[in-house]
Design goal:
about 240 residues; Conserved hypothetical protein from pyrococcus furiosus pfu- 392566-001, ParB domain; alpha+beta
Length: about 240
């Protein structure tokens, strides 16, 4: 279903070596001996990777599976929900780890060239299975519960029958005093730049409302990282 080539979503580098004298390039006046060495994955853009996967999957859906964007938005939140779930799966599978990526080197008329940038077979297989499942589910509730179950290995009892709603809240509406302070400090010590507003354009997490304030159910890193005054979250409905 998916094409395991995400070159546009991955930053990479490499070195080239030449031996024109031995290969006759100097005599021909055309260098054809370039070889690639020391390939290295530098960074994985998860937001771009999410968009890439979403667009690929949409392009492969059959006519009976495709929905008008307005209808899908009414049914479960549409594109933003699907992309949020894809992103969560990418994080769960640790696709941000450069060790999971490979660089294809192929022959060209003028020496070696970089081909596809692809995930390890096992990670890609798991990714494809999870994405297919997400697109099979037809409601916001099912999609979020599936992602939570995958990420944490289980679903909180209070969430088993829960319903969700996509809303916008202010960061000042969150009662951080009620939250795990040790976890908050641990989160703040990590590099959260990939969750800054210019890198991450999806809902920030899942919250629950108590009186006039909210507490975080899932999404500490994403919420702590943002400097936006207001952002979207999924609310656990009462």
């Amino acid at each position: 279903m998916l094409n395991n080539d995400f070159s546009s979503s991955v930053e990479y580098d490499f070195d080239r070596s030449y031996n024109c004298e031995e290969n006759g390039c100097n005599q021909e006046g055309i260098c054809k001996c370039s070889t690639i060495c020391s390939t290295k994955i530098l960074d994985v853009n998860l937001q771009d990777l999410t968009n890439n996967i979403y667009n690929q999957f949409q392009g492969h859906l059959g006519k009976n599976q495709k929905r008008d964007s307005k209808i899908s938005t009414i049914l479960y939140g549409g594109e933003v929900v699907d992309k949020y779930c894809i992103y969560r799966i990418l994080v769960y599978l640790k696709t941000f780890s450069t060790d999971l990526w490979n660089v294809e080197i192929r022959a060209g008329y003028y020496g070696e060239e970089i081909g596809s940038i692809y995930l390890s077979d096992l990670t890609f297989l798991k990714l494809e299975q999870h994405i297919e499942k997400i697109f099979e589910l037809e409601s916001l509730d099912e999609k979020l519960k599936y992602c939570l179950s995958v990420e944490y290995g289980y679903l909180l009892t209070e969430l088993e029958e829960a319903q969700f709603e996509l809303i916008s809240i202010y960061k000042t509406d969150i009662d951080f005093k009620k939250l795990n302070q040790k976890h908050i400090q641990d989160c703040k010590q990590e590099d959260l730049s990939h969750y800054f507003a210019y890198n991450y354009a999806l809902p920030r997490g899942i919250v629950k409302k108590y009186s006039d304030t909210y507490t975080i159910v899932d999404g500490y890193h994403r919420i702590l990282a943002t400097d936006q005054k207001a952002f979207e979250v999924f609310l656990v409905k009462e």
